[in-house]
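User: tokens in, sequence out, please.
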């Protein structure tokens, strides 16, 4: 298995479980101590290779290999549960549809259903990623289709209908 290998800490990677993938990020000594105990590797707490985040990043392959062996024996639910109990940041790796349907995405209303030409149903469009107290951003319309605003733009630049038609006839627009 090829690991992503973090540059500045470890393990920070995607790991395959029996039924999926999870992301785990162990950054900082307190997290690393909890992780090493969970992995059953208390001797790694005094191993010089793993003394700092930077050294853990340099030796990330050994950490990722250990984490992968641990994950391979568990389902996503088991691995996430045990990591969560140890207060180690982790999350399931979701496919596109699962991400769209995730309760956090739904609960925060991060996506707005917007009608789009050529689609039989509205498409989920991401809202502005910030919420402001005075100006609460919204989606006023979908993205323009190819050429949708060509006439308006060219007209604003002084091109009359006959000239725009000439450009179309020549395949320029």
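Assistant: Sequence out:
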């Amino acid at each position: 298995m090829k690991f992503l290998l973090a540059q500045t800490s470890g393990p920070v990677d995607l790991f395959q479980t029996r039924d999926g993938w999870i992301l785990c990020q162990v950054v900082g000594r307190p997290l690393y101590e909890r992780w090493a105990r969970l992995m059953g590797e208390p001797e790694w707490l005094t191993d010089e290779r793993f003394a700092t985040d930077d050294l853990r990043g340099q030796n990330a392959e050994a950490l990722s290999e250990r984490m992968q062996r641990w994950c391979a024996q568990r389902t996503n639910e088991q691995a996430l549960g045990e990591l969560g109990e140890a207060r180690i940041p982790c999350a399931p790796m979701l496919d596109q549809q699962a991400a769209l349907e995730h309760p956090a995405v739904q609960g925060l209303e991060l996506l707005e259903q917007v009608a789009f030409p050529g689609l039989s149903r509205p498409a989920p469009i991401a809202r502005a990623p910030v919420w402001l107290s005075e100006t609460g951003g919204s989606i006023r319309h979908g993205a323009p289709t190819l050429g949708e605003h060509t006439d308006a733009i060219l007209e604003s630049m002084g091109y009359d209908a006959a000239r725009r038609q000439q450009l179309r006839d020549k395949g320029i627009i």
